[in-house]
Design goal:
By secondary structure, this protein is α+β, with helices and mostly antiparallel strands. The chain contains seven helices and four strands; from the N terminus they run αβαββααααβα.
Amino acid sequence: MHPADWWTTLPPAAAADLADTWIVVGLPGFAGDAKHRRQELLDERFGADGWRISHIVRGRVVPPSEAILEYEEAYRSFLRDRPALVRFLVTTLPGRQDWYHAEGCAHLSIEAFWQMSKVVEVRYDRFLALGD
């Protein structure tokens, strides 16, 4: 047996535990137009059920449903602390919709949090199956 194949001879219970273990393997960031291609690549490499996008929030790997709560609170906190900015955003240029009306001035920094907190997690057994 090749030294890299040690995990293929595990007893069923240990193999099941390995399949239930998820590890972070990358930081995908913003995908834009390449999002579907990236998904196809990860599906090919690890299987559709063998990878997922998660986020690192306050030192923990969490699902997007938990990370979005932090993301939304970042907007609320930013705007609560800047009442003059809020007044400006809602009262300037009536009828005009610029990026800051739709997204807020903090969009870039808060969006950076959302994109940079993303990680790709992979089932450990699928990761090991890649070999060397």
